[in-house]
Write a structure and sequence with these properties.
Layout: H1 28-42, E1 58-62, E2 79-83, H2 89-94, E3 117-119, E4 125-127, H3 133-146, H4 154-175, H5 182-195, H6 202-209
Helix pairs in contact: 4-6
Protein backbone atom coordinates (compact mmCIF):
# COMPACT_ATOMS: atom_id res chain seq x y z
CA UNK A 1 0.00 0.00 0.00
CA UNK A 2 1.35 3.41 -0.92
CA UNK A 3 0.15 6.98 -1.36
CA UNK A 4 -2.13 7.47 -4.37
CA UNK A 5 -3.05 10.70 -6.12
CA UNK A 6 -6.70 10.68 -7.13
CA UNK A 7 -7.49 12.31 -10.45
CA UNK A 8 -10.61 13.86 -11.91
CA UNK A 9 -14.02 12.27 -11.47
CA UNK A 10 -14.97 9.97 -14.36
CA UNK A 11 -17.81 11.85 -16.13
CA UNK A 12 -20.01 8.76 -16.31
CA UNK A 13 -20.57 8.79 -12.54
CA UNK A 14 -22.65 11.96 -12.86
CA UNK A 15 -25.37 9.90 -14.56
CA UNK A 16 -26.06 7.85 -11.45
CA UNK A 17 -27.77 8.68 -8.15
CA UNK A 18 -28.05 6.62 -4.99
CA UNK A 19 -31.67 5.93 -4.14
CA UNK A 20 -32.56 5.86 -7.82
CA UNK A 21 -29.84 3.63 -9.27
CA UNK A 22 -27.83 0.76 -7.88
CA UNK A 23 -24.31 -0.38 -8.69
CA UNK A 24 -25.54 -3.05 -11.10
CA UNK A 25 -27.04 -0.23 -13.21
CA UNK A 26 -23.56 0.70 -14.51
CA UNK A 27 -23.05 -0.14 -18.15
CA UNK A 28 -19.97 -1.98 -19.37
CA UNK A 29 -18.79 1.23 -21.06
CA UNK A 30 -19.13 3.20 -17.83
CA UNK A 31 -17.28 0.54 -15.86
CA UNK A 32 -14.48 0.67 -18.41
CA UNK A 33 -14.31 4.47 -18.00
CA UNK A 34 -14.07 4.10 -14.22
CA UNK A 35 -11.30 1.52 -14.61
CA UNK A 36 -9.36 3.87 -16.87
CA UNK A 37 -9.50 6.53 -14.14
CA UNK A 38 -8.52 4.02 -11.46
CA UNK A 39 -5.54 2.84 -13.50
CA UNK A 40 -4.36 6.41 -13.89
CA UNK A 41 -4.36 6.62 -10.10
CA UNK A 42 -2.97 3.22 -9.09
CA UNK A 43 -1.74 1.51 -12.23
CA UNK A 44 -2.69 -2.12 -12.80
CA UNK A 45 -2.18 -2.95 -9.14
CA UNK A 46 -4.50 -3.53 -6.23
CA UNK A 47 -4.81 -0.32 -4.21
CA UNK A 48 -4.27 -2.28 -1.00
CA UNK A 49 -1.90 -5.23 -1.50
CA UNK A 50 -0.27 -3.93 -4.74
CA UNK A 51 -0.58 -7.29 -6.51
CA UNK A 52 -1.08 -7.20 -10.26
CA UNK A 53 -4.76 -7.11 -11.18
CA UNK A 54 -5.46 -8.34 -14.67
CA UNK A 55 -8.93 -7.92 -16.12
CA UNK A 56 -10.21 -11.21 -14.73
CA UNK A 57 -8.80 -10.75 -11.22
CA UNK A 58 -10.13 -7.38 -10.18
CA UNK A 59 -13.19 -5.52 -9.00
CA UNK A 60 -14.18 -1.92 -8.36
CA UNK A 61 -14.03 -1.61 -4.61
CA UNK A 62 -16.07 0.65 -2.33
CA UNK A 63 -13.83 1.80 0.53
CA UNK A 64 -16.92 2.51 2.62
CA UNK A 65 -19.26 -0.34 1.85
CA UNK A 66 -22.21 0.73 -0.24
CA UNK A 67 -24.33 -1.75 1.71
CA UNK A 68 -23.63 0.20 4.89
CA UNK A 69 -23.91 3.73 3.53
CA UNK A 70 -25.82 3.89 0.25
CA UNK A 71 -24.97 7.54 -0.45
CA UNK A 72 -21.33 6.57 -1.16
CA UNK A 73 -22.24 4.15 -3.97
CA UNK A 74 -21.29 6.48 -6.82
CA UNK A 75 -18.82 8.76 -5.04
CA UNK A 76 -15.51 8.80 -6.92
CA UNK A 77 -13.54 9.40 -3.70
CA UNK A 78 -14.90 6.09 -2.38
CA UNK A 79 -13.74 3.89 -5.27
CA UNK A 80 -10.53 1.91 -5.65
CA UNK A 81 -9.44 -1.00 -7.80
CA UNK A 82 -8.91 -4.15 -5.75
CA UNK A 83 -7.80 -7.70 -6.39
CA UNK A 84 -10.41 -10.45 -6.35
CA UNK A 85 -8.79 -12.54 -3.62
CA UNK A 86 -11.36 -13.62 -1.06
CA UNK A 87 -8.86 -13.74 1.81
CA UNK A 88 -7.45 -10.25 1.54
CA UNK A 89 -8.06 -6.62 0.50
CA UNK A 90 -11.52 -5.41 -0.50
CA UNK A 91 -13.34 -8.72 -0.39
CA UNK A 92 -11.87 -9.61 2.98
CA UNK A 93 -12.84 -6.16 4.29
CA UNK A 94 -16.44 -6.67 3.20
CA UNK A 95 -16.61 -9.96 5.11
CA UNK A 96 -14.34 -9.06 8.04
CA UNK A 97 -15.40 -10.49 11.36
CA UNK A 98 -16.49 -7.97 13.93
CA UNK A 99 -17.51 -4.33 13.68
CA UNK A 100 -15.09 -1.75 12.37
CA UNK A 101 -15.18 1.94 11.60
CA UNK A 102 -14.04 2.82 8.07
CA UNK A 103 -12.60 6.08 9.42
CA UNK A 104 -10.06 4.00 11.35
CA UNK A 105 -8.65 2.53 8.15
CA UNK A 106 -5.73 4.03 6.28
CA UNK A 107 -7.09 5.44 3.02
CA UNK A 108 -4.24 5.61 0.50
CA UNK A 109 -5.50 8.64 -1.43
CA UNK A 110 -5.62 10.65 1.82
CA UNK A 111 -3.12 9.03 4.18
CA UNK A 112 0.47 8.16 3.35
CA UNK A 113 0.98 4.49 4.30
CA UNK A 114 4.72 5.19 4.61
CA UNK A 115 3.87 7.12 7.77
CA UNK A 116 2.51 3.91 9.31
CA UNK A 117 4.25 0.88 7.80
CA UNK A 118 7.63 -0.55 6.88
CA UNK A 119 7.58 -3.40 4.35
CA UNK A 120 10.33 -5.89 5.14
CA UNK A 121 12.22 -7.96 2.57
CA UNK A 122 10.94 -11.20 4.14
CA UNK A 123 7.41 -10.24 3.09
CA UNK A 124 6.14 -9.05 6.45
CA UNK A 125 4.91 -5.59 7.36
CA UNK A 126 6.08 -3.80 10.50
CA UNK A 127 4.56 -0.77 12.17
CA UNK A 128 6.84 2.22 11.84
CA UNK A 129 8.73 3.05 15.02
CA UNK A 130 7.83 6.26 16.81
CA UNK A 131 4.25 6.53 15.60
CA UNK A 132 1.58 7.70 18.00
CA UNK A 133 -0.82 5.40 19.81
CA UNK A 134 -3.60 6.59 17.49
CA UNK A 135 -1.51 5.86 14.41
CA UNK A 136 -0.63 2.43 15.79
CA UNK A 137 -4.31 1.64 16.35
CA UNK A 138 -5.21 2.66 12.81
CA UNK A 139 -2.29 0.75 11.33
CA UNK A 140 -3.18 -2.44 13.19
CA UNK A 141 -6.84 -2.12 12.24
CA UNK A 142 -5.93 -1.61 8.58
CA UNK A 143 -3.76 -4.73 8.55
CA UNK A 144 -6.54 -6.70 10.24
CA UNK A 145 -9.43 -5.60 8.09
CA UNK A 146 -7.58 -5.97 4.78
CA UNK A 147 -5.66 -9.03 6.07
CA UNK A 148 -2.46 -7.66 4.57
CA UNK A 149 0.06 -9.03 7.02
CA UNK A 150 -0.87 -12.60 7.83
CA UNK A 151 2.29 -14.08 9.33
CA UNK A 152 2.14 -16.85 6.78
CA UNK A 153 0.27 -16.84 3.51
CA UNK A 154 0.23 -16.04 -0.15
CA UNK A 155 0.69 -12.30 0.15
CA UNK A 156 3.78 -12.63 2.30
CA UNK A 157 5.34 -15.09 -0.14
CA UNK A 158 4.49 -12.86 -3.09
CA UNK A 159 6.04 -9.80 -1.46
CA UNK A 160 9.12 -11.76 -0.50
CA UNK A 161 9.51 -13.08 -4.04
CA UNK A 162 9.18 -9.54 -5.42
CA UNK A 163 11.92 -8.18 -3.15
CA UNK A 164 14.39 -11.06 -3.43
CA UNK A 165 15.77 -9.88 -6.75
CA UNK A 166 16.51 -6.45 -5.30
CA UNK A 167 18.45 -7.45 -2.20
CA UNK A 168 21.74 -7.58 -4.12
CA UNK A 169 20.89 -4.33 -5.89
CA UNK A 170 20.34 -2.69 -2.51
CA UNK A 171 23.67 -4.04 -1.21
CA UNK A 172 25.53 -2.78 -4.25
CA UNK A 173 23.82 0.59 -4.10
CA UNK A 174 24.58 1.15 -0.42
CA UNK A 175 28.15 -0.01 -0.85
CA UNK A 176 28.65 3.07 -3.02
CA UNK A 177 27.27 5.57 -0.54
CA UNK A 178 30.75 6.72 0.56
CA UNK A 179 32.17 6.80 -2.95
CA UNK A 180 29.80 9.41 -4.36
CA UNK A 181 28.59 12.79 -3.25
CA UNK A 182 25.16 12.85 -1.60
CA UNK A 183 23.66 14.31 -4.76
CA UNK A 184 25.27 11.72 -7.05
CA UNK A 185 24.26 8.82 -4.81
CA UNK A 186 20.70 10.12 -4.53
CA UNK A 187 20.55 10.21 -8.31
CA UNK A 188 21.54 6.53 -8.42
CA UNK A 189 18.81 5.69 -5.93
CA UNK A 190 16.23 7.77 -7.79
CA UNK A 191 17.06 5.93 -11.02
CA UNK A 192 16.47 2.58 -9.33
CA UNK A 193 13.19 3.81 -7.84
CA UNK A 194 12.01 5.13 -11.20
CA UNK A 195 12.71 1.75 -12.77
CA UNK A 196 10.40 -0.07 -10.32
CA UNK A 197 7.64 2.55 -10.19
CA UNK A 198 5.12 0.39 -12.05
CA UNK A 199 6.06 -2.98 -10.55
CA UNK A 200 3.73 -5.09 -8.44
CA UNK A 201 4.53 -4.84 -4.71
CA UNK A 202 6.43 -1.64 -5.43
CA UNK A 203 6.38 -0.50 -1.80
CA UNK A 204 8.12 -3.65 -0.57
CA UNK A 205 10.75 -3.26 -3.29
CA UNK A 206 11.17 0.47 -2.58
CA UNK A 207 11.58 -0.09 1.13
CA UNK A 208 14.16 -2.80 0.42
CA UNK A 209 16.17 -0.48 -1.83
CA UNK A 210 15.93 2.36 0.67
CA UNK A 211 16.72 0.08 3.61
CA UNK A 212 13.75 1.30 5.58
CA UNK A 213 13.55 -1.83 7.73
Amino acid sequence: MHRLNRGAVPPCLAKYRHGRDNWSSLTAIDRAEIWQALERMQGKRCAYCEADIADGRRHIEHFVQKGRVSRVTFLWDNLFGSCNREDTCGKHKDHAAGHYNSEDLIKPDIDDPDDFFVFVADGTIQLRQGISAEQQRRAEETLRIFNLDAEHGALRRMRQAATTGYLQTAEELWSLVDEFSDEEWQQLLDEELAAIAHHSFVTAIRHTLCRMS
